[in-house]
Amino acid sequence: MTLHATKNAVFIIAEAGVNHNGSIEMAKRLVDAAVVAGADAVKFQTFKTEELVTETAEQASYQTENTGVKESQFAMLKRLELSEADHDFLFAYCQQQGIEFMSTAFDSSSIHLLHQLGMQRWKIPSGELLSIPYLRMIAAFNQYTILSTGMGRLDEVRLAVDTLLEAGLDKSKLIILHANTAYPTPYEDVNLRAMQTLANEFKVAVGLSDHSLGIEVPIAAVALGAQVIEKHFTLDKTLPGPDHKASLEPGELKSMVSAIRHIELALGSEDKKPSNSEKENIAVARKRIVAKVVIRQGDVFSEQNLTLKRSDKGLEAKFWDKVMGKVASTTFQPGIGIDIE
Questions:
Q1: Are 323 and 182 contained in the same domain?
Q2: 253 shares a domain with 111
């Protein structure tokens, strides 16, 4: 399955989210950092605060803890909302910088905005896993759709997948991400094996939206078969805001991307055969059959007069049993390679 038009096997989404703190200049710097890191896409969040939350909805506990301010979700999100003009600028800037622009829509107005903008790949956040009208709107575009499944049971993921497919999404364009909606996610709650369960259950490409600290977990996910990795990043973890503390800084993001690219190469194919880099070492590392003592013409080859040593002459060690019991056609001095007709 082709997830994207890049040479990389793993599609890496640098999740800027709302770590721009409402500043278009900071958002621009986040794009630059994602480009330097080598990510395939940089992703923001698009929402109309009035359509997303009520004015009395409380913050998540991690948001209060990370911001140090107890206020409503409405007040917090209103400061982090990007305007339509901001979206136009960021979309064009990403094209200019050679990185794919993505954004998660959280309401119908935002879906329309991103569609009109020309976004070609959709990301459904974990919080919208069971939002049936929302799922149907995105499925109707029949474009690449990445579904995060944090907080979801397998039957709930199945409901979301069925809804998407019944609403017009081609199954080949669906990617399912395992996720844990805790910021940060404790390592004991990551449960990477659930990603493989999703792959086996739904027979689609899978990946990980990771909220754990550090870069080890997404690297392990790639080794287990993830084709998409999404990871939050920020310019500075000490900045005020709900997601900075659980995000990577630019240098860490670059290290993660580099490590994933190394794992991509290291995974290779399923063929077990000598690699190009090791072929030249076969002749010097493997042993050959040589004379242990003087062997006279007419002597019978045996374990008493043959041995294995690294040598540039003689039969390969795998022919040991074939040589045993044969009669020497000439005399061999100790250390001379054995060849038979």
A1: no
A2: yes
In the chain, how many domains are there? 2
Reported as type and span, the H/E element at residue 159 is helix 154-166
Give the bridge partners for 290, in sequence order. Answer: 307, 337
Position 5 in a domain: no
Residues 46 and 87 sit within 8 Å (Cβ to Cβ): yes
Q: Is residue 272 a part of any domain in this protein?
A: no
Residues 106 and 225 in one domain: yes
- Both structure tokens of 28: 């621009």
Per-residue confidence of the chain (341 residues) as pLDDT tens digits?
A: 345 445 679 999 999 999 999 999 999 999 999 999 999 999 999 999 888 888 878 766 666 566 666 678 888 888 889 999 999 999 999 999 999 999 999 999 999 999 999 999 999 999 999 999 999 999 999 999 999 999 999 999 999 999 999 999 999 999 999 999 999 999 999 999 999 999 999 999 999 999 999 999 999 999 999 999 999 999 999 998 878 999 999 999 999 999 999 999 999 988 999 999 999 999 999 999 999 999 999 999 999 999 999 999 999 999 999 999 999 999 999 999 999 87
CATH number of the domain that residue 287 is part of: 3.90.1210.10
Neighbour tally for 188: CB within 10 Å: 6
Strands 205-210 and 228-232: parallel
Q: Can you give the residue range of the structural domain that contains 105?
A: 11-267
Residue 256 CA to residue 254 CA, distance in Å, equals 5
3 occurs within a structural domain: no
